[in-house]
């Protein structure tokens, strides 16, 4: 009943939502939303370089996003400017350099809107392989890194003092983010990737009693948003990326309704009656 | 009675002439002390005197830029940091906090929570705890992993006076029961935990060191703090040979003023360095002597 491209987009989108959930939880716990944005924006530079140097798109975006995050770490250590300002500089300059390079390549026809906002028509079977292959890799890595990542989210020095390696966990976390951005780009687009990380995670917070439950819930809510957004996109003929984000937002707003509060207060009163 | 002190073993951690520098400034310099099993060392000093820095250097969170820090192999540390802000978006119950850095058995979690009086709060979210409850939850987490060395960075902050005494009682019990070494950081310059074996007073360097005097021996303090406090608190009297001026410079007992103060600056004796430019009387009260005396005392007691 659906066209092949739609099924492909659905399978790919749900694959992305699965990894975006837990990763997005860390993004909001660590207050790294703007950092995720910066990495995502630099993806356009990755796209431009992939066209210029005829590299694989996912590999190229992954490398550029990783380099930008390492550059940020380096600049943060030097401490000349605040992280905010550094992110602003890196984010928009990477995006702009990408756009300028694309403009110079007059021999390449490129669907810029598709890259910026996602394009369900662009999802091929090879993309699905990459998304699910990469996604499973990310999930395994997250399970392996869970304890050091969570401990260093609470306090990096505490993690370090008690024998976990927070710096290494942070580095891997950034590489995982770069990887997810690289594989998620086609579905939601460069400008909207962070929202797929953040909105489902924020939605799940109210219903979660532990970090692990929140991560799983975020995955499920993200998958629901992807499905809803893609159906909406098909029905109303709207761009896929923004439709998914609107669906995620709708779920978030639903979670704010009184029914959410009742659930929350019910779970609180079972917490030993603390005021 | 103090059989948990094993004199033949090496100290858990020993710092020798340790200094940490950040952005061209020495946060702390020339620190020497060691912590053995069953020993309680209290670091005191004003804000910005390098107490936390010293503690972090001792447990390996900060690498010293000068001197050495020696830790026994496989040292298991339980750490309660000074500041810990957990984002509201992280759903974390007291129970889940306990296994933050390593897996624990259910019984171990229960024991630690019971010891700190937090068992009834096991299911509460940490963001909803009061200052004192949060400190006790953090302490429970640190002791649940049965550390060799417990590092407590201002554990009594945000705790009222009777809570402070209760916490010190608890720390004492932990030491007596588990025989771990304890490095305690206190912002209070004069009142320290009574069980403290060595007090190290820092202000960018070791200003003085020694043992506290029991409150119970001083009737004035006893009147001031009450009988219950007398068992937990002690008074530490400082013997400084120099004054820290408001601009960060140091006025020495010999009247000279230097930019900073550390063992090798020429205003303190050093037994193996010929850097002295002037003679000191042996009883000049110089911080360096005090430090050495404290050190020898500590060594004597250990053997």
Brief overview:
The complex is a heterodimer of chains A (275) and B (303). With 275 residues, chain A is mainly alpha-helical.
Can you walk me through this structure?
The complex is a heterodimer of chains A (275) and B (303). Chain A has 13 helices and no strands. Chain A has 275 residues and is mainly alpha-helical. In chain A, helix 1 packs parallel to helix 7. Chain B has 303 residues and is an alpha/beta fold. Chain B has helices at residues 51-59, 94-98, 106-115, 131-144, 161-178, 219-225, 227-232, 287-302; strands at 13-22, 25-35, 40-44, 66-71, 77-80, 149-153, 181-186, 191-193, 198-202, 206-210, 213-214, 233-235, 242-244, 250-252, 257-258. In chain B, helix 3 packs across helix 4 (131-144). The longest helix of chain B is centred in the middle third of the chain and has 18 residues, at 161-178. The radius of gyration of chain B is 20 Å and the shape is globular. Residues 269-303 of chain B have low confidence and may be disordered. Chain A binds chain B through residues 28-31, 79, 147, 150-151, 153-155, 157-164, 201-202, 205, 208-211, 213-214, 270-272, 274, and chain B through 23, 56, 59-61, 76-79, 81, 84, 86-87, 89-93, 96-97, 100-102, 120-125, 128, 145, 151.
